[in-house]
Write a structure and sequence with these properties.
Blueprint lengths: L32 H10 L5 H5 L3 H13 L5 H17 L2 H10 L6
Helix pairs in contact: 1-4
Amino acid sequence: MGGGYGQAQQQRPQAYTPPSQSYNAGTLTAANKLPAGICGIILNCLGVHKFILGYTTEGLIMLFGSLLTCGAALPIFAIIGFIEGIIYLTKSDEEFIETYVKRKKGWF
């Protein structure tokens, strides 16, 4: 009786492969250049331009650095934000994407 009845077939367990979590790199584009540049110039010391670009750590450093020093570091962060705002606006779209999307350059 070789019909295979009663014989347990052994199958190799397949390894679990979690669903791929693909990061949508398209969320930050050259369209973020204008809002980030304007916020860098106007709201410079608050670090809003960093949050727009997705740089949360740098934004928090600027925000809390300005607030926790009771304004002592505010002029420094204001100058940094102003300069970065001008840099964002003067870069071409290709340079902006290369620098702030692909290379993730956080400062200047």
